[in-house]
Design brief:
This protein is of the alpha/beta class. Helix content is about 35%, strand content about 15%. The chain is built from eight helices and ten strands. The strands form two sheets. Strands 1-10-9-6-2-3-5 form a seven-stranded parallel beta sheet. Strands 4-8-7 form a three-stranded antiparallel beta sheet. α2 runs parallel beside α3. The chain starts with a strand and ends with a helix. The structure holds 2-phosphoglycolic acid (PGA). 2-phosphoglycolic acid binds next to loops.
């Protein structure tokens, strides 16, 4: 545990390429790696680069396991706003990850019970190999909305106004954003063997510095990355880092 390594890159495109190198290296070393692929705008170039490498025969994802990070609640099957659908389009389909190699979050029934069972199953499987994460302007990881401590379990959550307004950019307006979600808890995210945090754009500048430099605490869930057991790499572009 040496604290996060910070790589400052020129722009969103270089961020995608540098992240693709890191992810490709992880998969080359551990072909059956379990990977949490965040949705959101930031990792999309990374996923496109990975797909291009696979198409060129440079990356074998035939054993990779994908583990879902978060999902809105209350959507009908096939709803355009499903985060699983976004993960399918951007990560699973381009990389050919299907069937039992896709581990989904529970969305039905007694969610507290189902999430507890999910966490027990994760405990048995052990830590994921790689978590690819973005950060919210409020410091969330997944939908672990502040305040949130490092031991938070997988659970249903109510989204904060900051997240709803950020997610409005994906789907149209705030009214289009579901207000509830399920998120993998901080405990399992922080246990990942490798964590790759991707940060792009001016709007993330304040929070990335708070997360990496201010007090560690529940007001900025991402600050707990500094206490994570595994390897943490933050790839941040100049617009977000403030060095342009
Ligand atoms: P973004 O989302 O990549 O679209 O900025 C990140 C997040 O909210 O975690």
């Amino acid at each position: 545990m040496g604290g996060p390594r910070v790589l400052v890159v020129d722009d969103a495109d270089e961020l995608g390429r540098v992240a693709a190198d890191l992810v490709s290296d992880t998969i080359a070393l551990a072909p059956a790696a379990s990977v949490i692929p965040a949705t959101g705008r930031t990792p999309m170039k990374l996923y496109a680069y990975l797909a291009a490498r696979r198409d060129a025969g440079l990356l074998d994802t035939s054993e990779v396991i994908a583990v879902q990070l978060d999902e809105y609640l209350g959507l009908a099957d096939g709803d355009r706003r499903s985060l699983f659908g976004w993960m399918e389009r951007s990560f699973l389909e381009p990389l050919g990850i299907t069937g039992e190699r896709v581990i989904r979050l529970p969305l039905d029934g007694d969610l507290d019970d189902a999430c507890a069972a999910y966490d027990r199953d994760r405990d048995v499987r052990g830590p994921v190999d790689l978590a690819i994460l973005g950060i919210g302007e409020n410091g969330h990881l997944g939908f672990n909305e502040p305040p949130c401590g490092p031991d938070a379990v997988t659970r249903p959550v109510v989204l904060t106004p900051t997240t709803i307004s950020a997610n409005a950019g994906y789907w149209g307006s705030g009214a289009d954003v579901p207000t509830r979600a399920v998120t993998m808890g901080m405990r399992h995210l922080l246990a990942a063997r490798t964590i790759l945090l991707l940060v792009s754009g001016r709007s993330k500048r304040r929070i990335v510095h708070r997360a990496l430099e201010d007090d560690i605490g529940p007001d900025v869930p991402a600050s707990f990355l500094r206490e994570a057991e595994g390897d943490v790499t933050v790839v941040v572009d100049r617009a977000a880092w403030g060095a342009e």
